[in-house]
Amino acid sequence: MSLAARLAALGTATIGEVASEARAIDLPLRALAPAAMAGPAITVRCRPGDNLALHRAIAAATAGDVLVVDYGGSVASGPFGEIMALACQLRGIAGMVIDGSVRDSTRIAALGFPVFCRGLNIRGTTKQDRGDVGAPVTLGGMLVRQGDFVIADADAIIVLPAGQAEAAATAGEARVAREDAMMDRLRAGETTLQILGLNEGDER
């Protein structure tokens, strides 16, 4: 299993517990449909109202990349839709996080392409401003650099420095094994107080 697949399977809650370097993007970004994804970031800065930089980033991305798009928090237009989602899928892009809106939400969800966005807007955009592809971007006050690992699911969107991703996956798998053993003990009749060694007198 690839590193990205391991991280996606573990989920943000587990990675957030075991990786001290994990940082959550503190923005109201939600998945268009139930989805989990992980992969190295390809960073994009778009001028609100223009999506040329997104087209450039899709062409530059490699399989497994996650588009991380600074759209300035604007929800006044939808710079990404079904056609671009299909283009991403065909290039093997793992998903997208955008501090902005998208369009064609039902069709993107039907494609199964993971998108985490601020909102929806059908208003179109121009294609004039080249923006930035590959430069650091800031989402929710957090700096994201090209190559940082992005893990996203229904709980959160977190970012890890690339050099920490393998260690986080290994630690996360160890935590899952411990939690599986705890759940086996619960099914066998023990309480969480007993399993965790807490004071039985506190039980109500």
What features would you highlight for this structure?
204 residues, alpha/beta, nine-stranded mixed beta sheet, 7 helices
Describe this structure in words.
The chain has 204 residues and is an alpha/beta fold. It has one domain (3-167): Glucose Oxidase, domain 1. The chain is built from 7 helices and 11 strands. The strands form 2 sheets. Strands 1, 2, 3, 4, 5, 6, 7, 10 and 11 form a 9-stranded mixed β-sheet that branches. A two-stranded antiparallel sheet has the order 8-9. β10 and β11 form a beta hairpin. It is elongated. The N and C termini lie far apart (44 Å). The model has no long low-confidence stretch (mean pLDDT 95). Its cofactor is a divalent metal cation. InterPro entries: RraA/RraA-like (IPR005493), RraA/RraA-like_sf (IPR036704).
Précis, in short:
This protein has 204 residues and is α/β, with parallel strands linked by helices. Helix content is 34%, strand content 24%.
